[in-house]
Amino acid sequence: MATHRLEQPTIAPEGDRSFWLRDLGAGPATQPFVGEAECDVAIVGGGYTGLWTALRLKEQAPELRVTILEADFCGGGASGRNGGQVHSWFAEIDLLTRLVGPDEALMLCHATAEAMEELAGLQASGTIDMELRLDGWLWTASSRAQECAWEPAAAICRARGETCLREIGREEILARTGSGASYMGVLEARAGTVQPAKLALGLRALALARGVVIHEKSPVAEITSGQPCTLRMGRGVLRAGKVVIASNAWAAALPALRRHLYVVDSQVIATEPVGDTLDRIGWTGGESICDAQAHVLYYQRTTGGRVIFGRGSGNVAYGNRFGAAFNRRPGGGEDNLREMHRVYPELRGARIAADWSGPIDCSAEHLPVFGHLPGEPDILFGVGFNGTGIAQTPVAGRILASLALGRDDRWSRCGLVGLDRRTVLPPEPIRTLGARVVRRAIRIRNDLEIGNRTAGPLVRWLSSLTPGR
Hints:
Layout: E1 3-5, H1 19-24, E2 35-44, H2 48-60, E3 66-69, E4 85-86, H3 93-100, H4 102-124, E5 137-141, H5 151-159, E6 165-169, H6 170-177, E7 184-188, E8 192-193, H7 196-209, E9 213-215, E10 220-224, E11 229-233, E12 236-245, H8 255-258, E13 261-271, H9 275-281, E14 288-291, E15 297-301, E16 307-316, H10 334-343, E17 352-363, E18 369-372, E19 379-383, H11 393-405, H12 430-450, H13 457-463
Helix pairs in contact: 2-7, 2-11, 3-4, 12-13
């Protein structure tokens, strides 16, 4: 038997939570775990991955006793603070092909497209009001250096007869977004935006309705392997046949996962309602938009007429450990504000109603990884979503459910399962020191390239050392 101690999250105070959560007055709906109990599958983490895994388990084995243990409340982490962008894996089909091969890559892309239709069905039936708008996802360029960043993915789609990524030009981008900053790109038409906290809370309600036991405000301190496994919390002990670790960036501190994952933060701002201005410039729909910078921009217009504008920071957590500083960065999102004014100069007078940040678990391949801890067949994990999860976690739930149930099927055999084919990152302190140098080079290069200027050879070389693309 082995004992695995889990990183304890620093819960964000109310003022540092996302606009999405604060707008709903979100909080716990279930009681903390107290005492002793048993279940068939225990899931650590009540975000999208944990909730979808519980739902998939109940779909396949309704009699299964499934318990979710959440340190905060469901959706209090990445699931309730992201940018609300929904798109398939077709944008990453080149990365998937490199990792799992062409046929399986195509299968996974279609699975995420089907997941978006599942979300649409949940909304249309009245099961979850998530403000889903499948008005399109735009991947664009606003400088010469960003042009055709999507071409590796688009070329594979064309070769496989897939028409999901359609090239668009300046006029269509302007008509859809009201901004002339970007002038070329691709559009995934059946994609768009959600209110991510509404989706998380809706999945919580659905899981409870289907018999999943959820305990919020119940951080797991340690997991001891065995048959059954033992999960210890401050006021109780849960014994489970299988354990699924679905705690996002907090799982990256586990020694077996730390070698393959790094944690960065992403910063987001929300404006006051500016619907009249957005209507005037022609941005009236629910499209999600991003550009092709290394520290990518992503933005949407909410149903309430606000602009949500996010940006990756590249700020790396030393040893994959992070605290309150990752909940809200100093400066009130000034980098985001500068870029928003570049993309939408009409919003220079708009008040920023909220700014927040949070950790994102990343793999070098920019794709999630699933499996079991080495030597621990009953302790599973699903991590490394790189900030792209709304259409991907329903698929992750299928993979983790098959692994937990011991099934031999396309999900358990998926090429995303297993650490053996994944990149091992450098040890500390080399990893963080190197990441900080690369981050600085990327920021310099980004700022120059936005103005169609060229960075020097040293900056170009350093910035090319980032994992992934």
